[in-house]
Specification:
This protein has a six-stranded antiparallel β-sheet. Strands 6-11-8-9 form a four-stranded antiparallel β-sheet, with no helix packed on it. It has a two-stranded antiparallel sheet with strand order 3-4. Helix 1 packs antiparallel against helix 2. By secondary structure, the protein is α+β, with helices and mostly antiparallel strands. The chain contains three helices and twelve strands, in the order βαβββαββββββββα.
C-alpha cells in the first residue's frame, strides 16, 4: 500500500544523487544476516553492526570496512530513517538494508522467514527504478515509484523482477511496534551479532 511521498525530501534527493554516481562493483556488499538471495541481487546493510560501517566477509572470515562512497549511502539511509520516524510513532526501527537488483534480474516468489518479521512492518523506499522494475505480490505486479513510500507485507508471497537497463535500488526499512518489541527483544536477547545469522537490535 502507498504511504507518503518523499521525493522532495533533501536527504532522499541526496540518496538518489549518490546512487547515480555510485560504483556498484567497487565495494563487495553482501551481508551475512541473509542467505544469498540469488546471483541477480546484492545487499548493503544499514542497521546491524554497531557502527554500520563494516560487514562480515563469509568467504575470507573477516570483518571489512565499507569504502567511503558506501559509508555515505549508509549514513544517508540512517538520516532518512530518523526523519521518517515521526510517521511511525510508537515503534522501533529494527532493520534496514538496500537491495540492488541487476538488469534482467529477478527474485523468485518467497515469504520472509526470520522470527522478528512476524512482528515487523516493511517500508520500501524506491531510490533508483524504472517502469520495467516491478514487485510481484499475491495480488499481482506493482511498480513502486521513485520517492514514494510503500508498505509491503513480507509474510505473503512476494518477488521482484527488473527488466530495465539499470540496477534497481530499493531501501527497505523495517519497524516493530512497541507493543511487540518486548517479544522480539526477549527472543533475541541471547543472540549474537549479525555474522551468526541473527539480527541485531537497533538502538531506539
Amino acid at each position: 500500500r502507498k504511504l507518503s511521498n518523499i521525493s522532495d525530501n533533501p536527504t532522499f534527493k541526496s540518496l538518489v544523487s549518490a546512487f547515480e554516481n555510485y560504483d556498484f562493483y567497487d565495494d563487495p556488499m553482501i551481508d551475512s544476516i541473509y542467505p544469498v538471495i540469488n546471483e541477480d541481487s546484492f545487499i548493503i546493510q544499514i542497521i546491524g553492526s554497531p557502527s554500520a560501517k563494516s560487514y562480515w566477509d563469509l568467504e575470507y572470515h573477516q570483518e571489512l570496512r565499507y569504502k567511503p562512497a558506501t559509508e555515505n549511502i549508509v549514513n544517508l539511509a540512517q538520516t532518512l530513517a530518523g526523519q521518517l520516524k515521526s510517521e511511525f510513532p510508537g515503534s522501533v526501527w529494527f532493520k534496514g538494508h538496500y537491495v540492488c537488483l541487476h538488469p534482467t534480474g529477478q527474485q523468485s516468489m518467497h515469504i520472509d522467514g526470520p522470527y522478528w518479521q512476524r512482528h515487523a512492518h516493511r517500508i520500501v523506499v524506491p531510490i533508483i527504478t524504472n517502469p520495467n522494475a516491478v514487485i510481484h505480490t499475491e495480488d499481482g505486479p506493482v511498480h513502486m515509484e521513485q520517492g514514494q513510500l510503500y508498505e509491503l507485507n513480507v509474510l505473503r508471497k512476494h518477488g521482484s523482477v527488473n527488466m530495465g537497463k539499470n540496477i534497481r535500488v530499493h531501501l527497505f526499512l523495517d519497524y516493530i511496534p512497541l507493543t511487540s518489541w518486548k517479544l522480539v527483544e526477549e527472543h533475541y536477547k541471547n543472540k549474537q551479532a549479525p555474522r551468526t545469522g541473527h539480527p541485531t537490535v537497533a538502538n531506539n
